[in-house]
Specification:
This protein has two domains: 158 residues, Rossmann fold (3-Layer(aba) Sandwich), CATH 3.40.50.620; 120 residues, TPP-binding domain (Rossmann fold, 3-Layer(aba) Sandwich). It has eight helices and 16 strands. The longest helix has 15 residues. The structure holds flavin-adenine dinucleotide (FAD).
Length: 303
């Protein structure tokens, strides 16, 4: 099986999310080729086939031209899967490609199961496995759901060109209004659970997150109680995260929470219950009162 991965280039930079596509492909166990509208001055660290079109000529985004270029690469490569990151680029281009190829599309994949691709459903409250009915499928993966993999370079570049005109013009990017935190990109997350007791204790957890150079996360009851806003929630109905360090403070380890953080590289849990289910995924379980342990650790880090 073979996947054509669709890299991304924005504001003259190759996006790191491109490497999450390789992580996904590695888990799927498929061969890869890469397609990118970018620049030969910023080649990805990838020792395979790269179908490269020039972004200065075709725009960082132009659905007409990028679709034409990509269909050309698909024709040469005959992949079983065409895989995008579920970004504004991916969710706009993927369905255009799927419709043209009459291929199934599976969007916002967060994991792989024996049955197929794992995606959210019921307004992201649950998950289900999806198996494409067509032989070829167009996929988008949720940012942060798969560990990035850098295969190492340099690639064998196949320059791509597209004929024809377009009525569209790429005029630039407008940054979205800042809303909450982007936990998917955080390297350290310290999350507060119901075990912290009350809203007034949130600053104690936030102070540890800050001391570690990370972000504040939370379990759902903490969000539902209005102690922090939903942008901080980790889990099936919050964000899926994979930081280098995840600290769960007063969090029991319900399946819906674990689904959002179990791919973290190193997990430390602080819980007064030594048998709390979070202990099953934690690398270190600190059995302590969270409101004693966390301030002590923050103070120690400050020394
Ligand atoms: C459809 C659906 C979607 C959901 N989505 C999410 C989601 O996205 N994210 C999510 O987090 N949850 C989600 N939930 C809720 C989930 O099932 C759990 O209820 C929730 O994760 C529990 O949060 P918690 O661990 O903070 O609280 P609890 O389960 O109440 O655990 C509190 C923990 O704190 C410990 N504790 C108490 N006091 C202290 C102390 N002083 N010191 C140290 N430890 C202490 C306790 O031993 C316990 O383990 C969802 C549920 C449903 C049904």
């Amino acid at each position: 099986m073979k996947a054509l991965l669709i890299g991304e280039y924005r504001e003259a930079k190759l996006l790191d999310s491109t490497y999450e596509l390789f992580g996904f492909a590695a888990q799927l166990g498929v061969k890869t080729a890469l397609f990118l509208v970018g620049s030969d001055s910023q080649l990805p660290a990838y020792n395979g086939t790269l179908y490269l079109a020039d972004a200065t000529k075709y725009g960082e985004y132009n659905p007409d031209l990028h679709k034409r270029l990509l269909l050309e690469a698909i024709g040469k490569e005959s992949p079983d899967y065409i895989v995008f990151v579920h970004s504004s680029y991916g969710w706009d281009l993927a369905p255009r490609i799927a419709a043209t190829l009459k291929a199934a599309q599976v969007s916002e994949i967060v994991g792989l199961t024996e049955e197929g691709f794992e995606v959210g459903c019921c307004n992201a409250k649950m998950r289900r496995s999806v198996k494409p009915a067509s032989q070829r499928a167009v996929l988008t993966i949720q940012a942060g759901a798969f560990q990035p993999v850098q295969p190492g370079g340099p690639p064998q570049v196949h320059p791509m060109t597209a004929e024809g005109t377009t009525t569209l013009e790429f005029v630039g990017y407008e940054p979205a209004e800042e809303k909450g935190v982007d936990l998917a990109r955080a390297e350290v997350i310290v999350s507060a659970g119901r075990g912290i007791g009350k809203k007034d204790n949130i600053p104690v957890i936030a102070a540890l997150a800050k001391a570690l150079g990370g972000e504040l996360g939370a379990s759902r009851p903490v969000v539902d109680a209005g102690w922090v806003d939903h942008g901080h929630q980790v889990g099936t109905t919050g964000q899926t995260v994979s930081p280098k360090l995840y600290m769960a403070c007063g969090i029991s380890g319900a399946i819906q929470h674990l689904a959002g953080m179990k791919k973290s590289e190193f997990i430390v849990a602080v819980n007064k219950d030594k048998d709390a289910p979070i202990g099953e995924v934690a690398d270190v379980l600190v059995v302590a009162d969270v409101m004693q342990f966390v301030p002590a650790l923050t103070a120690r880090l400050a020394r």
